[in-house]
Amino acid sequence: MTPPTTCATPCPSPATKQMLKQILTSAVFAGVSAGVLAAFLQLWLVVPLIMEAELYESGARVHFAIDGSTQSDRGAPSVWEEPLRHIYTIGFSAVTFTAYAFFMVAGFALAARAGYEITPRRGIVWGLCGAIAVVIAPAIGMPPELPGAIGAEVGPRQVWYLATVACTLIGIAAIAFGPTGFVALAGVVLMAVPHLIGAPHLDAYFGVAPSELASEFVARVIGVALVSWVLLGLFAAMVWTRSEEA
Amino acid sequence: MTKNAQAIAQTQSKTRIDADMMGIAGAVLLGLTLLFAAGFAQASVLHDTAHDMRHAMSFPCH
Q: Which residues in chain B have their CB less than 8 angstroms from residue A151's CB?
């Protein structure tokens, strides 16, 4: 009869080591691959609109002041003009999605501990919920802005943005995992709170870019976010289930 | 004896749960750090290089 081994600090059991490896591999693999794919979608659909808006920001194009009529040429500069700039975008997109992936995989780990099974199809639903929390819900109060848009101070807007993301995530979790209908209802109320308080806004409009350009930008940001987050959820769940079997 | 073994098993599983929670907390912390650097830090080098990504991901940028 061998005496049980004891550790002064909690010694990581094989199961814990396995889980840490699972968290790390799922988050990094899913984050980097979804982030790079998201960046390509953005370079195709979103970045040209950012570059076009910069023409209005710098005054190279003017929309509202030509002989009293509002018109200006349509067309974005080519994305091939500044390759280095776009390499940064790809890199930062990979970093941001890796951050998102760490949150998602931490959620997987918590859900799995509570006996919930993670599957690739469910990963897609997790991804959709991520896009709702991180992009769609904040966009209701603070639509994604083109360069050149003048808004309220950045600090309070960042606080409102983060608070909205947190409330929406907790609300969605309450609806998905809440033990009673009452908890789910409380989740819905929580999701509404940031919008009842309202995002910080100035009391005048300052936009220099055509409204068509701004609305096209917002729609594409949301569309690209949905696709990218679905990919993130799918990849994260695929690696998660695969490393569970291994 | 059986009781003893049970107690040991319980302590071990509790330790495991705590270590698991540390792992989950670590993942959240790592996520927050990366997110702050890429999306929210106002240092001008970070702001300029992450500029297009911040607009495209709907972070409040400037």
A: 60
Instruction: Kindly report the pTM of this predicted structure.
Output: 0.89
Report d(CA B61, CA B55) in Å as an integer.
7
Choose among A88, A144, A146: nearest Cβ to B49.
A88
Structure tokens at B34: 């990366």
**pLDDT tens-place string over residues A102-148:** 999 999 999 998 899 999 999 999 999 999 999 999 999 999 999 98
Could you tell me the sign of the dihedral formed by the alpha carbons of A191, A196, A198, A204, in that order?
positive
Residues of A in contact with B15 (CB under 8 A): 7, 10-11, 13
By Cβ distance, the residue of A20, A86, A95 closest to B23 is A20
Interface touch B58/A100, C-beta < 8 Å = no
